[in-house]
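[Discussion] Sanity-checking designs against the backbone

I'm trying to build intuition for which residues belong where. Below is a structure token string of 92 positions. I'd appreciate it if someone posts a full sequence so I can compare it with mine line by line.
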């Protein structure tokens, strides 16, 4: 909620941006602990049929593939809330 309020109040500084999100870097060695802490699985950015993330329900996305590090979204504005849990480093 705090992130949403802050980004809403400072939207004038980003006039051409439709939404803001914050992703955190997670090394593979900390993935399991991170997922337990947040209560969700880090998701892959795209679906198998190449459907865009904004057209998907995040619960239906596959887990992010094993990689050295991940960058899952942990905070977002309401306009882009569908991307929470999605790994920004798993896309092409």
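Best answer:
Here's mine. Compare freely.
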């Amino acid at each position: 909620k705090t992130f949403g309020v802050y980004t809403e109040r400072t939207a004038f500084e980003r006039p051409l941006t439709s939404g803001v999100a914050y992703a955190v870097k997670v090394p593979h060695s900390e993935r399991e602990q991170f997922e337990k802490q947040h209560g969700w699985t880090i998701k892959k950015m795209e679906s198998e049929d190449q459907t865009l993330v904004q057209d998907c329900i995040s619960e239906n996305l596959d887990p992010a593939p094993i990689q050295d590090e991940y960058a899952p979204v942990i905070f977002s504005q309401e306009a882009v809330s569908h991307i929470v849990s999605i790994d920004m480093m798993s896309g092409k």
